[in-house]
Each structure stands twice: as C-alpha cells, then as structure tokens.
C-alpha cells in the first residue's frame, strides 16, 4: 500500500466511524460496492475522483481537509473535481479549475 492510499483510506475510515456508519451503510449511501469501500479503507486502492466525491458527499466530508493531509501542491485539470469545488464551495469556475489543477497530479486520480 502506498502512502497516498493509506492517507485516503485512513481519512475515509475516520469520517465513517465519526458518522457512526458501517462500511456497507456508507457504500450504499455513496452508491458504490462495499468491496470498493473496503479496498479504499484498507488499501491499496486510490479511488477515482468520481468515487472519492461520492464518498465525501455521503459522509458530508470536507475534501480540502483530505487534500491538506496529502500535502497537495501541483497538478492538472480534473473536470469532476472542478465541478465539485464549484458546487460544494460556490467558487468561480476559474478558481475551481485552478484548485483542480493543483490536486489531480498529486492525487493521481
């Protein structure tokens, strides 16, 4: 398991436990397979942006907290993340695109 998958898995697990949800409950709420959630939490799976956003929304989690834990600095555009940032944070398309560029390469989504 690489460091990114470990950080992401730990983040998801902490948020799930804080929300008092079992893995299968969170998976159902996020619309993903329980096995996918298990692989995210236990590694070595690094989720796609779409899956990460589904899980974050189901947990009402702040992805910026996760990005900070990952120490993200640079990257390239990622449409799903850009849309999420625009909707979740109400930021402009320009700002969302800028943030997305700084996330994707480091997260390897």
Describe the fold and architecture.
The protein has one domain (3-107): Orthogonal Bundle (434 Repressor (Amino-terminal Domain)), CATH 1.10.260. By secondary structure, it is mainly alpha-helical. The chain has helices spanning 3-18, 23-30, 34-42, 49-59, 63-70, 79-89, 93-107. The model is unreliable at 73-77 (pLDDT under 50). The protein contains 7 helices and no strands.
Protein topology:
Blueprint (H helix, E strand, L loop, with lengths): L2 H16 L4 H8 L3 H9 L6 H11 L3 H8 L8 H11 L3 H15 L2
Helix pairs in contact: 1-3, 2-3, 2-4, 6-7
Protein name: Helix-turn-helix domain-containing protein
InterPro entries: Cro/C1-type_HTH (IPR001387), Lambda_DNA-bd_dom_sf (IPR010982), TransReg_Diox_bact_type (IPR050807)
Keywords: DNA-binding
Strand count, sense and closure of the main sheet? Answer: none
* Proportion of residues in β-strands: under 5%
Which residues form runs of ≥5 with pLDDT under 50?
73-77
Order of helices and strands: HHHHHHH
Number of strands: 0
Overall body shape: globular
What's the Cα radius of gyration? 13 Å
At CATH level 2, the architecture is Orthogonal Bundle
Would you tell me the overall average pLDDT? Answer: 79
Give the class from helix and strand content and strand pairing: mainly alpha
Measured as a percent range, the helix fraction is over 70%
> Which fold does the CATH topology refer to?
434 Repressor (Amino-terminal Domain)
- Distance linking N and C termini: 16 Å
Specify the CATH homologous superfamily: lambda repressor-like DNA-binding domains
- Return the CATH class: Mainly Alpha
- List the domain count as a whole number: 1
**DSSP helix count?**
7
Pfam families: HTH_3 (PF01381)
InterPro entries: Cro/C1-type_HTH, Lambda_DNA-bd_dom_sf, TransReg_Diox_bact_type
Protein name: Helix-turn-helix domain-containing protein
Keywords: DNA-binding
């Amino acid at each position: 398991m690489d460091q990114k998958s470990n950080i992401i898995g730990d983040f998801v697990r902490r948020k799930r436990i804080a929300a008092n949800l079992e893995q299968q409950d969170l998976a159902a709420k996020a619309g993903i397979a329980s096995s996918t959630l298990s692989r995210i939490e236990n590694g070595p799976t690094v989720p796609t942006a779409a899956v990460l956003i589904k899980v974050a929304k189901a947990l009402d989690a702040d992805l910026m907290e996760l990005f900070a834990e990952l120490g993200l600095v640079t990257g390239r555009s990622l449409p799903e993340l850009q849309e999420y940032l625009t909707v979740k944070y109400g930021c402009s398309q320009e700002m969302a695109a800028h943030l997305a560029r700084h996330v994707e390469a480091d997260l390897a989504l």
